Amino acid sequence: MKNNELHNNNTGFNTPKEYFNSFEDRLFERMNTKSVIPKETGFQTPDAYFDSLEDSLSKELFGTEETSKVIPLQRKRDYLKYISFSAAACILLFVAINLINIGPDINPDGLAFEKIEDSEINEFIENDLIALNNYDLVDVYEEENVDITTTFEVDLDETDTIDYIENTIDPYDLLTEQQ
Amino acid sequence: MNVLETSLIDDLKNPQTQEKAFRQLVSSYKERLYWHIRRMVTSHDDADDVLQNTFIKVFRSIHNFKGDSKLYSWMYRIATNESITFINQRAKKAGISSEELQEQLVNNLTADVYFEGDEIQLKLQKAIATLPQKQQIVFNMKYFDDLKYNEMSEILDTSVGALKASYHHAVKKIETFLTD
User: How high is the ipTM of this complex?
Assistant: First the structure.
């Protein structure tokens, strides 16, 4: 075989144009720059910076935030808060009426429950002036056997309810409670 | 452009799907664009501002994107221009040149909680700040982002030959600065 044919490529393989012409330049460039110029800049970012970027940008452009902690059933009305206030109001009325009917006359000055305006009672309850907690309400509620379905006009969609429960209750919490 | 990119752009242009597509876009490109911007403006807070401006601009201009370049190249160009605009506006506000401003920004790195570089890395930033603006961009894109010359040519609208010359000069100046 002649010398000038030693490096002939007869295998069918090709190289990019000018590959060998620029090889030394690229090689020495790589060797020189790596030895003097550091590859890392030293710049850092705050913890979890990149995790929240989509949310802040989406909020700015679309007014929405995917990772919202509270999942409302209805945007305009909070039915559960409405239910709890209404339940408290009804229970208080029943309790108050029963006490008035069975107890002694404790109104020497002639004050009667009937003289209290409904709006005053509602205001008293809504301003958290009543010291009943949820357990107290449940106890009283059970005793009175009030049919909740006939009391409220709220019509909850089943799908909304299921979605709300699924989005607010962590199944792992339930599992650990079971243990 | 590949099929996935075309599909993403179509979704970005469609009001029904644009929010989800935008989130995907941000998720896919935020880190690459952030570091490109950060190397130009040096401070994290400024990089965050410029990055968000970049994505907002991308979103608002998506209908003008003709598809004659890759989506990433187009976004990279917007990020570059936003960074340059930021530096020039900040310099103008301070009544100094953009070169003087960059020198100031680099000097501030010693007190920056989000800079943990050693002495040589700090010196590298000072070296880069001495380069003309375009040379800085070329150097960062080639050395740190490892972009190919033809990709850089598309982004910067500059010939490959000019970019190679620019990079070569940038490296020589930086090496001289670091070894002095």
Answer: 0.89
